[in-house]
Amino acid sequence: xxxxxxxxxxxxxxxxxxxxxxxxxxxxxxxxxxxxxxxxxxxxxxxxxxxxxxxxxxxxxxxxxxxxxxxxxxxxxxxxxxxxxxxxxxxxxxxxxxxxxxxxxxxxxxxxxxxxxxxxxxxxxxxxxxxxxxxxxxxxxxxxxxxxxxxxxxxxxxxxxxxxxxxxxxxxxxxxxxxxxxxxxxxxxxxxxxxxxxxxxxxxxxxxxxxxxxxxxxxxxxxxxxxxxxxxxxxxxxxxxxxxxxxxxxxxxxxxxxxxxxxxxxxxxxxxxxxxxxxxxxxxxxxxxxxxxxxxxxxxxxxxxxxxxxxxxxxxxxxxxxxxxxxxxxxxxxxxxxxxxxxxxxxxxxxxxxxxxxxxxxxxxxxxxxxxxxxxxxxxxxxxxxxxxxxxxxxxxxxxxxxxxxxxxxxxxxxxxxxxxxxxxxxxxxxxxxxxxxxxxxxxxxxxxxxxxxxxxxxxxxxxxxxxxxxxxxxxxxxxxxxxxxxxxxxxxxxxxxxxxxxxxxxxxxxxxxxxxxxxxxxxxxxxxxxxxxxxxxxxxxxxxxxxxxxxxxxxxxxxxxxxxxxxxxxxxxxxxxx
Length: 579
Description:
Blueprint: H1 3-10, H2 16-19, E1 21-24, E2 31-35, E3 42-47, E4 58-59, E5 61-62, E6 68-72, E7 80-86, E8 92-95, E9 102-103, E10 111-112, E11 135-139, H3 155-168, E12 173-176, E13 180-181, E14 194-198, H4 204-217, E15 221-226, E16 230-231, E17 248-251, E18 257-259, H5 264-279, E19 285-288, H6 291-296, H7 301-318, E20 323-326, E21 348-350, H8 352-363, H9 369-377, E22 388-392, H10 404-407, H11 412-428, E23 432-436, H12 455-458, H13 461-479, E24 494-499, E25 504-511, E26 514-521, E27 527-533, E28 537-546, E29 554-557, E30 560-565, E31 569-578
Parallel strand pairs: 11-12, 11-23, 12-15, 15-19, 19-20, 20-21, 21-22, 22-23
Antiparallel strand pairs: 1-2, 2-6, 3-4, 3-7, 5-6, 7-8, 7-10, 9-10, 13-14, 16-18, 17-18, 24-25, 25-26, 26-31, 27-30, 28-29, 28-31, 29-30
Helix pairs in contact: 1-5, 3-4, 5-7, 8-9, 11-13
């Protein structure tokens, strides 16, 4: 058996899209087709070249390596096709190609003969590491902008608006919710059906390439949400592909089907899909969805852990500098520890504990916050040996919870003030930052994939001011190494003072010879002369403010600085003087 075929069956192949699927056979020789269908009795392929005539479909041969293969001399690039598989019960099933690079526009389900115009060599990666500033804008690419009549923007059309927006807001990366083809327009894209097929909503491979290249020219890194845990249960696609369960291990909690991560060819399918988005489509990293669900809620959790270790180790070896981010809804795994130390090997993990704890605290009435204060601050510091990401994501803006702005307690003015505090805390706390689209201007309603962010609301004066605040904060955070250098080392955050009764707390960040005091008042009333321990003597120079804090230097005496903090305000002061 060929080495690549052996790796395919062992679940170790990262380029199965070369081995399987449809590929040109050579000038004038048509196309070669290869499919994995172990339960099938017979496999045929038909399409535009034969007028979709089932009685004259081309037969594929079952080969000694367990794959079905065949050549169709009449097939031409751009034509639609499907496999016709006779299942173990004798029934026939028309299915698209799991390894197809292009697809028929929805609601059609056929695959299209297409070879990406790429040489299958890895592009240069953007070098980003734990000591680099990383500020990610998360968005749903197919709904961020729409034409007036509801039509989707192509990738190049989206780039014209998106690139200057990201630059104006000083984001270093954009994270795009799933770009792989998915069947239901009303979904977020997390129940996919085309794992090597950029969605036609953006213009397929050409549209995605135009978008990624425009972002790279602007110096913006591109991350994509990758979904290796479950897939769409729609009939006529991956489900019961060859007439029996093949890719699936059973139903998921979301009405989809869980991938069978105990099966070698399924693991190779997913490993190769991940590599495809990096190598062929030019993405700089992946945010891997539903890690906790796979580990703790599926029947083959230990096999899922081994799969994720293989995924991270293989991608890091093949694509130096790639960024791999885990979504950990369980909050208990060792996602960012190295595989040598028994971890999963991701570069970063969403710190769900911090996100949930902070939003719950800011949603509470002011008179209830003193009882919640100490417990909330317990999630302020990064868990040991964890490279966390302070994510305010689409999950925190979902229909069940409402937009972050909606969740915050108080009047409109108080909500906006607290959102400023939240963004300031996100930037000041150790950990990379991620912000879902619309949060930068206090999106007034939950995310819905069928509509754009509320750009009309963003134009109103209070939200326009918040938007400007967010952009200025991103620029400030990128200019101050104390906020990103060494943030994952022990002692990166030193508490400087706290008081549950008034809701005030502060901490010190140090890095590259810079010392910053970050102070917050989460209560409604003004607190005067609150003492923070910063060490040494000298001055505290105001550098960034969320609220009316003034711009006068404050003396540091006997290692302490006393600040007046109006209600729902915060700021960052640079400590200058003798340590």
